């Protein structure tokens, strides 16, 4: 069997040597450098167009969330954008990839799979229109975006391992800075207020332990509250 791969950083050149003995029947071969965009159908503008459609839908989601709430763009990104949101946007973006786009990508390699578009099918939005919408939405949400910006331009190469590490490092630094900012924003209690709050907890703790019908449960909950809630004070 043959495993044919491109030269993406995630595909180590010594992969065949690392295969277990049970898989020594597999021969690993790599495409020549810079040939992937020419040989792989999905690289014939399909992925590029999908990325643009995804960016447009992402900016649209950012605009809608910040426009109808008091959230800032940073707050939306950190607290309200998750994997589910990402998958929803991917679904919408992929639905926007036109049949014409797919046909042009596969026609030369596998002409039998090309589906003739229905006469009533609506024409896809021109790429220039999608780019204009991305720029417009980006500027509406407060971003300085142009059609030449890296957010919307076509990415014609994979990130290297060093670039991926650098991105991860930047993300961790941003998260650390955000957590430190959150800690600084917590209201500082005076010693008098802190003493009063702790005394209130002691009084409540005594009451619960004396009057709760399930003494064992009361003890566990009080201990848990002491550890998880009161320990910072």
What does this structure look like?
This protein is mostly helical and 233 residues long. The chain folds into 3 domains: 2-39, no CATH class; 42-156, no CATH class; 191-230. 58% of the residues lie in helices and 3% in strands. It has helices at 15-18, 36-39, 46-67, 73-79, 83-95, 99-106, 127-140, 161-185, 191-211, 215-230, and strands at residues 2-5, 27-30. A two-stranded parallel ribbon has the order 1-2. Strand 1 (2-5), helix 1 and strand 2 form a beta-alpha-beta unit. Helix 3 (46-67) packs across helix 5 (83-95). The longest helix has 25 residues, at 161-185. The protein is elongated. The termini are far apart. GO terms for molecular function: DNA binding. This is Tigger transposable element-derived 1-like. InterPro entries: CenT-Element_Derived (IPR050863), DDE_SF_endonuclease_dom (IPR004875). Residues 1-106 form the DDE-1 domain. Pfam families: DDE_1.
Structural class: mainly alpha
Please estimate the helix content.
55-70%
User: Shape, please?
Assistant: elongated
As for the number of domains, it is 3
Distance between the termini: 64 Å
Taking the sheet with the most strands, its summary is: 2 strands, parallel
Oligomer: single chain
Mean residue pLDDT: 78
**Fraction in beta strands:** under 5%
What is the β-strand count? 2
Widest beta sheet: strand line-up: 1-2
* Alpha plus pi helix count: 10
Contiguous runs where pLDDT drops below 50 for at least 5 residues: none
String of helices and strands: EHEHHHHHHHHH
Roughly how many Å is the radius of gyration? 28 Å
GO molecular function: DNA binding
Protein name: Tigger transposable element-derived 1-like
InterPro entries: CenT-Element_Derived, DDE_SF_endonuclease_dom
Domain DDE-1: 1-106
């Amino acid at each position: 069997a043959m495993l044919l791969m491109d030269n993406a950083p995630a595909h180590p050149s010594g992969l065949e040597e690392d295969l277990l003995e049970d898989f020594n029947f597999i021969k690993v071969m790599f495409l020549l450098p810079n040939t992937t965009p020419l040989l792989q159908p999905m690289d014939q503008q399909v992925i590029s167009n999908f990325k643009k459609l995804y960016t447009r839908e992402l900016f649209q989601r950012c605009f809608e969330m910040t426009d109808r709430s008091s959230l800032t763009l940073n707050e939306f990104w950190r607290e309200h954008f998750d994997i589910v949101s990402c998958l929803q946007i991917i679904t919408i973006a992929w639905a926007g990839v036109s049949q014409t786009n797919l046909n042009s990508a596969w026609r030369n390699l596998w002409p039998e799979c090309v589906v003739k578009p229905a006469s009533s099918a609506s024409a896809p939005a021109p790429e220039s229109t999608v780019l204009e919408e991305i720029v417009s939405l980006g500027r509406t949400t407060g971003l300085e975006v142009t059609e030449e910006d890296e957010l919307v331009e076509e990415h014609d190469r994979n990130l290297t391992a060093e670039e991926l590490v650098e991105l991860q490092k930047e993300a961790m630094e941003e998260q650390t800075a955000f957590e430190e900012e959150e800690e600084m924003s917590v209201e500082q209690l005076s010693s008098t207020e802190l003493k009063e709050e702790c005394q209130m907890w002691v009084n409540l703790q005594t009451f619960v332990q004396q009057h709760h019908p399930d003494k064992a449960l009361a003890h566990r909950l009080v201990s848990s509250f002491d550890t998880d809630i009161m320990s910072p004070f």
